[in-house]
Write a structure and sequence with these properties.
348 residues; Rossmann fold; 4-stranded parallel beta sheet; globular
């Protein structure tokens, strides 16, 4: 096992947003009291506290046996993490069912996104204190430290785009990227941002679509994120998956994952994983649906009636978009350039 060094790469830039954009973000997202900042050349939006960690993310030491699950939020992240973790951990479904996914598959940049009181933060803080007595976890980052110290083989996950991670990432480890129809992604993200205390969105759906189309939601711009991955789709250490393909035929996509990861699962094991990764199992498991995990739900979530694992469907945007919103979104979709034309997104 080896790690990447990345000693020669520069830290991504951090720029403030125009004051009117900051005020609008603050008004709609109660947690973002200081607004958001634009990071890197594409201006990906993150909370200002990312300044403490962005250099660490850009120089994160990946190992050659890591698998990184990368997505724009609400594109099938939790689902794919669970599948990849099981495949790379000898189909240990008992541990998968009993141990919360964030403890098995660390979220690299969550220190830059969350606030004190996250459901697994107490456990991670205890581990951090044992490893680093006397050090300030707010400066080091308990989630980042958890990712760095996790035992191999690590299944890590991120919503950061390639440009904010080490330049040699794909030359070091495997990356699984999941893309989803942006209309469904937008709908799912709307409910997610209402639900999570890390955002506390209080506007309506039409206002959220407007913010989305103006690249004023957390982790935006969507097209910048997706295009950075699309450009790397032919790299041997990269696998591009579509959420819609996974929903349509999960056994087929699991075979693709198995071939890519080299895990050599039998047909019986792939069948077991298909059942384990079903929407009903994921929604009813406290290890993956944090809405039904009392400790994590209390720490992470508002009183919104939505669920962390919500519908798991495709085409749900049809029941949310008015003709006016669809027209607005179509204009935004033209800003996707070549990736919007070439990638086989459904319903565009």
């Amino acid at each position: 096992m080896s790690t990447s060094s990345n000693s020669c790469s520069c830290c991504p830039s951090i720029k403030t947003l125009p004051s009117n954009d900051v005020q609008e973000i603050r008004a709609k997202f109660l947690t973002f009291t200081d607004g958001l900042v634009a990071v890197g050349d594409e201006g990906h939006l993150l909370p200002p506290q990312c300044s403490r960690f962005i250099n660490k993310y850009h120089h994160f030491r990946f190992r050659d046996d890591d698998v990184l699950v990368m997505t724009f939020p609400r594109s099938g992240t939790t689902w794919t993490q669970e599948l990849v973790w099981c495949m790379t951990h000898n189909m240990d479904l008992d541990t998968a069912a009993s141990t919360p996914l964030p403890l098995r598959s660390p979220f690299i940049e969550f220190d830059a996104l969350t606030h004190p009181g996250h459901g697994v933060e107490e456990i991670l803080s205890q581990q951090f204190a044992e490893r680093h007595p006397g050090q300030d976890p707010k400066q080091v980052g308990v989630f980042l430290d958890s990712a760095e110290c996790a035992k191999s083989p690590r299944t890590l996950h991120t919503h950061l785009p390639f440009s904010l991670l080490p330049p040699c990432l794909l030359d070091t480890c495997k990356v699984v990227y999941v893309a989803r129809n942006p209309r469904d992604t937008c709908v799912s993200y709307y409910y997610h941002q209402r639900l999570m205390k890390s955002a506390e969105y209080v506007g309506n759906f039409a206002e959220f679509v407007d913010l989305w189309c103006r690249n004023l939601v957390l982790q935006a711009p969507y097209w910048g994120h997706v295009s950075e991955a699309w450009e790397r789709r032919d790299h041997p250490n990269f696998l591009w998956l579509y959420y819609e393909d996974m929903k349509e035929n999960l056994p087929r996509e699991l075979r693709r994952l198995d071939n890519f990861l080299g895990t050599g699962l039998t047909e019986d094991q792939l069948g077991q994983l298909t059942q384990h990764g079903s929407f009903s199992r994921m929604k009813n498991s406290t290890a993956t649906n944090f809405s039904i995990n009392p400790t994590m739900a209390k720490a992470m979530m508002t009183n919104d009636k939505s669920s962390f694992v919500r519908k798991g469907t495709t085409g749900d945007w049809v029941s949310h978009f008015t003709p006016e919103l669809e027209a607005k979104f179509k204009v935004w979709e033209t800003s996707g350039g070549e990736v919007a034309k070439q990638a086989a997104f459904r319903n565009i």
